[in-house]
Write the structure tokens for this entry.
Amino acid sequence: MLKTMLSLMVMCFTVGVMAQMSVEEAFRKENAQAFGHHFHADVEMSLLGKDNRYSKADAIGLMEKFFSLHVVQSFSKVHSGSSRGKVSNYYIGQLTTDKGVYRVYIYYDVHGDKKDIHELRIEKN
């Protein structure tokens, strides 16, 4: 029983780390399409002070535009966690581009092995 519980805990941790790594890689490689695999059907986005709710396709387009205007130099995780009920999760990162340093906030749910991003914010630091 203990072995099974330990295995489940390790598996859950691994899935969380893999999901976070894919977001980090998407930023580092300026890969807007990679976000599409994780975006919810509609995504609340705040990009440099412009807030709105977008379809998945439009959200990908906004990320493509952002990456075309900002050359990524680095991306690093600052903090992550989950709500009390462990239903919703958040991820905070720091994005450094040729135009400056930005704080990235991502709010998402996890359903099995799929991460569903509901909100993405990129704000000037």
About this structure: Residues 4-21 have pLDDT under 50 and may be disordered.
